[in-house]
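Batch 3, record 17
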Amino acid sequence: MKIEELRAGDELLYSGELLLMRDAAQKRLKMLLEEGEELPVSLDGAIIFYAGPAKPTKDSFGAIGPTTSNRMDAFLEMLYLKGVLATVGKGKRGQQAVSLCKEYGRAYFLAPSGAAAALAGRISSMTVVAFDDLGTEAIFRVRVKDFPLYVAIDYLGNDVFIKNRG
Amino acid sequence: MDPAIVELLDHYEGPFSSVLRENAIAAKETGLPICQDTGFLEFFVFQGNEVALEEPIIETLNSAVKKVYNDKPYRYSIVSDPLKRVNTRDNTPVVCHLFPVRGDRLEIRFLVKGGGSENLSRLFMLNPTATVDDLVRTVVESLKESAARGCPPLKVGIGIGGSSDKAMVLAKLALTRSFDERHHDKDYAALEERILGEINDRLSGSGNGYNRLLGAHRDLSLAHRHNAGGTRNGLLYRKKGESNP
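Prediction for the assembled complex:
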């Protein structure tokens, strides 16, 4: 994915890998770094999806969808410093996140909320890579096909939630 | 699905419109939830004084939720302790509000409330001299700050009056009404319409990124409680033969 080619407001279908992690996992990553420990997963080039899947069924990896990104603004710089390319979540983020996207040249995407059953059908594999004890808040690696994304903050710091606000 | 939601979905042409429509069908066919956040279960139990139960109602509700969440592909979102945060892996305990009423009827309302909407809850202590305009402004300002972090379409529940905790419960109770149901008291119904209009105007102004992105419709339910001189009246869902919840 070429982040520089994407602009706030663009819609795209993404096929490839996503790393699922949310509040609890990021808090643990931060603690590990503060203690000088190695991270249990490489974040270099990763696209992070702020999500915790529901239970799998025999036909599906489970309902899945984005959680509120703004809550995890405080961990965003840590992710960027570890090489994260972009994040995917729900809703408007704070000014701090917009500035970081611009400073590091990274993007923030929205995934559709209220589309968990449809998104489950776009996932072709899912494995736990760290923090299994956190249940739905563990870190998962998933492969997706034609996963709908919307560029909310582009690498220039344009934000659809504040752009053109009258 | 609420017919009001179906209509919104059919007419929605913003981002993600096709996947949202696909989702409604996929959820029906697969039994997967429409949203992965099958969050907190909150129950509002109106129990008549002539109703005798074999066990405390909260035990029945916890057992029911445990069974449903074990059987269905719903996410376990509840932790046992706010500091230790260990997932209970059955989505209990539930939150149960009990309203003792007169009569032989048991009415149970409930919300399946995701964390993303729950954490946008706000409590405001307005002065006794606050006007209706102040009230409307408070609601609109709060939504300007928080609405873009929630999932469209927004449903807004407002509770007014009582103590701080009572107001919050009333706001939740207001959310148990259907999308297009208005308050039974015409003055409060008019206030609902006014607040709804202002929210939609202020958050959907032309050129606003939020509107362009979400094209959303908000709905609002308002529960109120007069608290002057200790009298209580005009409550939501007052029914003949029952005292006020």
